Amino acid sequence: MNAVEIKGLTKAYGNNYALRDFSLNIPRSQVCGLIGPNGAGKTTAMSILATLLAPDAGSAAVNGHDVMSEQAKVRRLIGYMPDFFGVYDNLKTTEYLEFYAAAYRIPVSERARLISDLLELVNLTEKSHSYVDSLSRGMKQRLALSRCLVHNPEVLILDEPASGLDPRARAEMKEIIRHLKRMNKTILISSHILPELAEMCDSIAILEQGKLVTYGPVEEVTAARQGAKILKVDVADRLNELLEFMISRPEVVSVDGEAGWARVTFQGNKAAQGQLLREIMEQGWHVYEYAEVKGNLEDAFMAMTGEGE
Ligand code: ATP
């Protein structure tokens, strides 16, 4: 049995379909990244999974429990971090977690230990006596994540947990999510920060206008960009000339000048890639670097959702 089984979910608001026949299975202990442009239906799908919204058609289950008919069981199994959440500003972080621990009926004798462990997990031990109000956005987000963990759920549904965070705060959030993965949690996480998702997910689902565009292991989804790869070509000089030369080659789909180097979308095999390098060198360019750029999830996303090029 998969930890999450979504079958044919459909949800419309008037004539606007937020989800259309959306299906997705996530095996236990896997991290699945849900990617899609604004309005793709990510939050709708997550809200249904979190038992907070009823679909028009289809079903969803967590560890075999139906989100509609077994809400209480599902709520015990999941930790849901919504994209917008309120925090109670007049509480200290410890009191805030106390409140949730009480709501989940964690025995009083266990709470202090639990809260201390949770604060340590999200790197907020130092802030245990600070008012929630005084925390930075990144800290508040980590606190909200710890709140979802109070009842030790098996499945986490995290709706853009890194949105609005600076690079350092995003890196911290990423580290915590990796830690949760090591704790064997099953995680469904949505984000717009695509390269970061690639680093922490086992699989990626791309949604567009409520429809699943693709779903598979990160490497497959990345490679599925019409078989194309991105090459970085760094030369000593004549970059503009190189860009013109490149675009004239049959296997080159597009070229872009980055800071001092050419970013080449290339659709050919290894032999053709080698041949292209020889041609560049024969034309007299001094090549500093000629390499495939890895982890082009962003490119895959742009290509598949039709927002790019
Ligand atoms: P974002 O990345 O912007 O958070 P999303 O992928 O989470 O977007 P949803 O919030 O699920 O997308 O929205 C999907 C579609 O459903 C959008 O067109 C949105 O306008 C619509 N929608 C969502 N909630 C409602 C609602 N309560 N009433 C009417 N339309 C809604």
Describe the structure.
The chain is α/β, with parallel strands linked by helices. The protein folds into two domains: 4-223, P-loop containing nucleotide triphosphate hydrolases (Rossmann fold, 3-Layer(aba) Sandwich); 228-305, Alpha-Beta Plaits. It has eleven helices and 14 strands. It has helices at 42-49, 71-77, 93-103, 108-121, 137-148, 167-182, 194-200, 218-223, 239-247, 270-282, 297-304, and strands at 4-13, 16-26, 31-35, 57-62, 65-66, 78-81, 155-159, 186-190, 203-208, 211-217, 229-235, 252-257, 261-266, 287-293. The strands form three sheets. The chain has a six-stranded mixed β-sheet, with helices on both faces. A four-stranded antiparallel β-sheet has the order 2-1-4-5, covered by helices on one side. A four-stranded antiparallel β-sheet has the order 12-13-11-14, covered by helices on one side. The longest helix is centred in the middle third of the chain and has 16 residues, at 167-182. The chain starts with a strand and ends in a 5-residue tail after the last helix. The structure holds adenosine-5'-triphosphate. Adenosine-5'-triphosphate binds at residues 13, 16, 18, 36, 38-44, 83.
Label this structure with key terms.
binds adenosine-5'-triphosphate, Alpha-Beta Plaits, about 300 residues, alpha/beta, 11 helices, Rossmann fold, 14 strands, 6-stranded mixed β-sheet
Describe this structure in a few short sentences.
The chain has helices at residues 42-49, 71-77, 93-103, 108-121, 137-148, 167-182, 194-200, 218-223, 239-247, 270-282, 297-304; strands spanning 4-13, 16-26, 31-35, 57-62, 65-66, 78-81, 155-159, 186-190, 203-208, 211-217, 229-235, 252-257, 261-266, 287-293.
